[in-house]
TrEMBL record:
Annotated TM spans: none
UniProt keyword terms in alphabetical order: Coiled coil
Domain Integrase catalytic stretches: 241-407
Organism field: Terrabacter terrigena
Matches recorded under NCBIfam families: transpos_IS3
SUPFAM superfamilies: Homeodomain-like, Ribonuclease H-like
Name the record gives this protein: IS3 family transposase
Keyword Transferase: no
PANTHER family in UniProt: TRANSPOSASE INSF FOR INSERTION SEQUENCE IS3B-RELATED (PTHR46889), TRANSPOSASE INSO FOR INSERTION SEQUENCE ELEMENT IS911B-RELATED (PTHR46889:SF4)
Coiled-coil region(s): 65-92
Length: 425
């Protein structure tokens, strides 16, 4: 049978006393430690360490006494516990931080048990359950280990089950829509899909995982005014409204940064439905850029059997829109040209708003971009999504194509601009 790893205190004291007594007598000093060790069954080197420590404790030998060593060990343990408590409070503050993924402002406020359990789950392997509960309770956030273990055994509540299912749908909707939807549109899309939840629930769940809408923000000049005289009137006067499709289109050009250089994008938008009817990308700002976007819009409407005669085409005074080729194409299509004033973005505000949205939702959100080839594919996918899936706030949170379809179902024969605004002709 193996010897016990720790000697009894009584045996230790007796061995030290016998060894010290023998070492004091010159006749028995030689080999005293070996003899006492053999008699009591103690390793001589272990006994030697005991005797030396006893001499230190009595002041006969320099060194750290047993009492001092014990005190040092206690201080080291206290420091270790304080560091652990400080780390628990630091991680808890970050976990419960307001403005982040969790709604609590700081440790010490009323924190739901579910959130506390989530925090303990995440850090129990590092700190342990009992130390975490002790530190948090000392900081004013009361939770006992028994509360944690009871919560772990408890079946999930109906609300947590419902929240999990709703959150999964929210994450899917947010990802499928370029990650640009905020609370309002995510909530609207949930309702469109038949998942009826309160808007405040949508807000709470999106905040819990850090989901939010995209923000807009602004770079090279794309509007270069024409040098010649322009007598075309401003028929819109900042009133960007229409009662039917193909009454009023707005057009503008914006820019996109790629690794290969600047790329310019031209768009033509139907004011009634906010639908992008035509677009084009180019590495330069020549007339063909704007003209190709216009041609695409006219072709798209002609393919659908829509008459664009009498359409008002509104733009800024960019040189592309003053070009003879562009003006002639408008005349051939029976469209009426309208322009805003020079250097005033409000006169073409609807097109400017789309440009801002386009850059926020696609260019900055999905960039950076290598070249015009990569960007062209992405723009095609974005415009298709924008026209057929994206919920538009100005249309009652439905996509532009759906809004047009609803109009044509209720108005089989749509009045042209000639009939509705005779004063323009």
């Amino acid at each position: 049978m193996a010897a016990p790893r720790k000697y009894p205190d009584e045996l230790r004291e007796r061995a030290i006393r016998m060894a010290v007594d023998l070492r004091r007598d010159p006749d028995t000093k030689q080999g005293a430690l070996r003899r006492v060790g053999e008699q009591l069954g103690i390793n001589p080197e272990t006994l030697r360490n005991w005797v030396q420590q006893a001499e230190v404790d009595e002041g006969h030998r320099p060194g750290v006494s047993t009492a001092e060593a014990k005190r040092i060990a206690e201080l080291e343990r206290e420091v270790k516990e304080l560091r652990r408590a400080n780390e628990i409070l630091r991680t808890a503050s970050a976990f419960f931080a307001g403005g982040g993924a969790r709604p609590q402002a700081e440790v010490g406020t009323a924190v739901p048990t579910a959130v506390l359990v989530e925090y303990i789950d995440e850090h129990r392997d590092r700190f342990g359950v009992e130390p975490i509960c002790t530190v948090l309770s000392g900081a004013g956030t009361q939770i006992a280990p028994s509360t944690y273990y009871a919560a772990k055994k408890r079946a999930p509540s109906a609300r947590s089950v419902s929240d999990a299912a709703t959150l999964a749908k929210i994450v899917t909707i947010h990802a499928e829509n370029y990650g640009v939807y905020g609370i309002r549109k995510v909530h609207a899309e949930l309702c469109r899909q038949g998942h009826l939840v309160a808007r405040c629930t949508t807000h709470r769940l999106m905040k819990s995982v850090g989901l939010h809408g995209v923000s807009r923000a602004k770079g090279p000049r794309t509007t270069i005014p024409g040098s010649g005289p322009d007598t075309r009137p401003d028929l819109v006067q900042r009133a960007f409204t229409a009662t039917a499709p193909d009454q009023l289109w707005v057009a503008d050009i914006t820019y996109c940064r790629t690794f290969a250089g600047w790329v310019y994008a031209a768009f033509v938008i139907d004011v009634f439905s906010r639908r992008v009817v035509g677009w084009q990308l180019s590495k330069n700002l020549r007339t063909d850029l704007a003209l190709d976007a216009l041609e695409m819009g006219l072709w798209d409407r002609a393919r659908a059997g829509r008459d664009t005669t009498g359409l008002i085409h509104h733009s800024d005074k960019g040189v592309q829109y003053l070009a003879i080729r562009y003006t002639q194409r408008l005349a051939d299509a029976g469209a009426v040209a309208s322009v805003g004033s020079t250097g005033d973005s409000y006169d073409n505000a609807l097109a400017e708003a789309f440009n801002s949205l386009f850059k926020a939702e696609l260019i900055r959100n999905r960039g950076p971009w290598r070249s015009i080839d990569d960007l062209e594919i992405a723009v095609a996918e974005y415009i298709d999504w924008f026209n057929h899936q994206r919920l538009h706030g100005e249309l009652g949170l439905i996509p532009p194509a759906e809004y047009e379809d609803q109009h044509y179902r209720h108005n089989p024969v749509t009045a042209t601009v000639v009939a509705s605004v005779p004063s323009l002709h």
